[in-house]
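pinned: reference chain
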Amino acid sequence: MACARRLAKAGLRSTLFDKGRGIGGRVATRRVNALQFDHGAQYVTAKDEGFAAALRELTAMEAIAPWQDGTGRAKTVGMPGMSSLAKVLAAGLDIRLGAQVTAITLADSGWSLRIGNIEHRASHVIITVPAPQVAAFLGTDHPLVVPLSGVRFAPCLTLMAAVAATARFISRSDLDDPLAWIAQDSSKPGRPQGDTIAWVAQAGPAFSLAHLEKDPDSIAALMLPLLCDRLGLTKDQITYAAVHRWRYARVIHPLGQVFLRSPDGMLYLGGDWCLGPRVEAAWISGTAIADDLLGRAR
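pinned: its structure tokens
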């Protein structure tokens, strides 16, 4: 989306294809009746001035706001959910949801993308899926796929729970704990308020990898007692619980460069996996791709 927005400002039209039902990927919010949970990215921070400027613009639009989680560190969240960040960035773009690309081939006058029985043509293609999924489009022997062999992701199992009890804390981070991150989602600005508190608990890499292939009910049965212990609760105080599996949650060995480009400048690969496990990294990669494409076009 960062790439498409930069291209649009320069007068170039692009189309985004996303196999999901909602835009934003891991910048996600799940809503269940009167509850909601940021079950992917928990917040954003900015080190890059360009991304910081983008956040200031979103703040002025009331799409994001500061979150005080008790750590004293500046953190920003979407309003009224993390998915709002993606929705505002997507405004005005040509986005096709539920559109899973099954093949990308080079044609005589550009690229051909296959979605179901429909063929789409494009002059340039920018692939921003997780690095391990790129080979499915281009083949394992493609020159741009070979450098991706060193990129590594860690999975993450996320537990969403509603609790009818007061909270001990706002957030808790302990990388050595099976529940590496626990956050009181209800404490974030713009969230639904009431007697029930929404909590998000994200398992650490070792726990997530060990139980990744279990069914959701089995994962919940493992994570709920851990959450109850950390919150000082009993299981009967949990009024709702669900699990989400993020297979490519957090890049642990990034590429180390902002993007990859074919020699002819017609194909780009990018994403957070280029630089690190931050929303900001995805924005930097996408923006850099757009700037490079525009520079070559000029």
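why pinned: The helical segments are 2-9, 49-60, 83-90, 135-138, 205-211, 216-231, 279-297. The radius of gyration is 20 Å.
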